[in-house]
Amino acid sequence: MATYSEVMTAAQLRDAERITMQSTPEAELMDRAADAVAAEARGTTEARTRQMGRAHVVVLAGTGNNGGDALLAGALLSAEGADAVAVLVGDGAHERGLKRFAAAGGRIVRAADSLDEALALVREAHCVIDGIVGLGARAGLRAPADGLVAEIPLHAAVIAVDIPSGLEADSGDADLPHVHAGVTVTFTALKRCLSARPAKTSAGLVVLADVGVTLD
Questions:
Q1: Is residue 2 over pLDDT 60?
Q2: Banded pLDDT at 52 (limits 50, 70, 90)
Q3: How far apart, in Å, are the Cα atoms of 14 and each of 19, 99, 188?
Q4: Going by fewer Cβ within 10 Å, which terminus of the chain is more open, N or C?
Q5: What is the phi-psi region of residue 27: left when phi exceeds 0, alpha when psi lies from -120 to 50, beta otherwise?
Q6: Beta 157-161 vs 183-187: how paired, if at all?
Q7: Does a cis peptide bond (omega within 30 degrees of 0) precede residue 177?
Q8: Partner residues linked to 189 by β-bridges
Q9: pLDDT digits 0-9 by tens, 10-19
């Protein structure tokens, strides 16, 4: 296992993940990612609310693996006593992450079915875990993600999974709607959007986590 402090492209990282998953289950990689995200969310939120049991945590979960990582991290926080709610931004969600989140006592709201409720939950958040989209996404956010992100309160701890949603991994541009994170937990290697201006200013503190992807 290793991390690489120089910038890698999304294509390079996907190739490295594909090779790694020939010997390491994807679920194991995701669990490691969730551990890293939960640790940052825990530390940042506890500094503001004293304990996770008082924290209202909102997971913004898209349909892909970033959404799965966010849900798994939310499940860990829910098991520790946080009031955790998953707002599903797309038509579905990562199945294992969703099951783990529900089993840990987290509440699930589908934005497509209850947008007003979802918006209200975001406005009340102490901590938001951003797992809307991942490395392969184009710049910008579509509805309802853009509206939900716009409602994140200024006082909330915002933890982005891998990259802030709405930024493009291989670009330093930041002119379209996107998440402004206080902490970005990125995996294996830095991405251009986390190291080049103006995008890097929206990433906050970048934490490079080793999840076990082979770089050789």
A1: no
A2: low
A3: 9, 25, 11
A4: C
A5: alpha
A6: parallel
A7: no
A8: 4
A9: 999 999 999 9
